[in-house]
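Support request from a user on the community tier.

User writes: "When I paste my structure tokens into the form, the page sometimes reloads and wipes my input. The last time it worked, I copied everything first. Here is what I submitted, just in case something in the input itself triggers the reload:"
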């Protein structure tokens, strides 16, 4: 058996918008026809995926009648039950329609803000009807090119109003649903509000029910501007806020490329997988990526298979890292040196006694921490592991 063949237990998921991406970009028309959601569900299930996600409009085209909506939902539910696929997450398209040209929740126009909240309540109903327990908020059009009119602080206030209102709605309906905010620095806006994991974490703490709201960090979004996604992920995990994750790949300083997972920077992807697997994160391993524009439908499925295989290969590499005697020996030596100090520290928590003891402690600054950090050795071992010679 192929040991890198994905299984349902691996919890891999894709968005309808990812495999269904038609290759349209700012300079060119679609290169592939749209995929029928029912077809995508079946193909993903055959490839070993576990879940499928959607924006309201990916499943039920904007402006559909109630009758149309009901037919689409019925057929989609049938496809889910026939294929054994689940819908762990859903979201709202608040960026495609021209009404959102200058924002949705943060639009300066009160009618647009209200419409965005209404659209989201309906989309939440749809997501919950299909089984979603996580709801993603990516503020696609929440941003600006010009700061002459809207006060950026007021935009945050408006964003908070909308999220608080929607938290109230979810509680009122008795839905089992948590929110996950997805930061992004720019694109399609010149600059987006809530641009990074750190900004979003600070925002969450100001909400009415912060315990219901976490993060959906995306590899490409932190990487675009040169931030370290592994560090962003680590901070989200440490804060207990990793509610969902968008995996893909990306080169720094480019537009949001959304490449196949691990295709550009397998080393950083390795650390992402290693961290996720060690963290106890039990949510979807979601690929928010798309096939290259030059591909046809066969290329789309090759892309989807590639995302999942690379994840599993890197998971195997993470296991090797944990089992490698030389690597673990080196780590143990470093740890032994790092934990040898037994004097007063901040780790005990503050007390006036602890403060007095630490103030009085004598340190030989020339001697402590003076060993080489052996990161050259360690990094080379990781590289050799990844290159397959260990
Ligand atoms: C869009 C965006 C993604 C978001 C999706 C959810 S839509 O493709 O680029 O990062 O996760 O709204
Ligand atoms: Mn992206
Ligand atoms: Mn994303």
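"...and here is what came back when it finally went through:"
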């Amino acid at each position: 058996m192929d040991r890198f063949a994905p299984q349902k237990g691996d919890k891999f998921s894709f968005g309808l918008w990812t495999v269904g991406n038609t290759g349209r970009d700012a300079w060119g028309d679609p290169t592939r026809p749209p995929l029928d959601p029912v077809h995508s569900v079946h193909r993903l299930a055959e490839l070993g995926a576990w879940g499928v996600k959607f924006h309201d409009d990916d499943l039920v085209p904007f402006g559909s009648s109630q009758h149309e909506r009901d037919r689409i939902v019925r057929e989609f539910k049938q496809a889910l039950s026939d294929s054994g696929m689940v819908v762990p997450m859903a979201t709202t398209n608040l960026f495609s329609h021209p009404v959102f040209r200058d924002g949705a929740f943060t639009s300066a126009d009160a009618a647009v803000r209200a419409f965005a909240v209404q659209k989201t309540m309906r989309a939440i109903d749809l997501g919950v009807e299909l089984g979603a327990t996580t709801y993603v908020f990516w503020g696609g059009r929440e941003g600006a090119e010009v700061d002459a009119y809207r006060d950026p602080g007021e935009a945050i206030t408006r964003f908070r109003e909308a999220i608080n209102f929607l938290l109230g709605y979810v509680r009122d309906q008795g839905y089992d649903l948590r929110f996950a905010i997805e930061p992004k620095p720019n694109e399609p806006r010149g600059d987006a509000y809530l641009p990074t994991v750190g900004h979003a974490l600070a925002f969450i703490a100001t909400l009415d029910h912060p315990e219901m709201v976490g993060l959906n960090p995306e590899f490409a979004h932190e990487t675009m501007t040169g931030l370290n996604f592994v560090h962003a992920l680590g901070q989200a995990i440490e804060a207990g806020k990793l509610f969902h994750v968008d995996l893909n790949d990306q080169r720094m300083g480019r537009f949001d490329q959304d490449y196949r997972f691990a295709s550009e920077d397998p080393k950083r992807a390795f650390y992402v997988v290693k961290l996720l697997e060690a963290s106890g994160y039990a949510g979807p391993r979601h690929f928010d990526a798309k096939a290259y524009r030059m591909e046809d439908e066969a290329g789309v499925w090759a892309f989807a298979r590639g995302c999942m295989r690379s994840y599993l290969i890197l998971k195997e590499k993470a296991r090797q890292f944990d089992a490698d005697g030389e690597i673990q020996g080196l780590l143990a030596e470093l740890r032994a040196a790092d934990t040898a100090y037994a004097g007063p520290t901040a780790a005990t928590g503050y007390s006036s006694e602890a403060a007095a003891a630490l103030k009085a402690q004598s340190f030989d600054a020339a001697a402590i921490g003076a060993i080489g950090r052996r990161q050259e050795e360690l990094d080379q071992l990781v590289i050799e592991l990844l290159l397959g010679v260990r």
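Agent notes: The reload is a front-end session timeout and is unrelated to the input. The longest strand covers residues 51-55. Strands lie at 12-15, 51-55, 89-91, 134-138, 143-144, 178-182, 191-192, 213-215, 246-247, 285-287. Escalated to web team.
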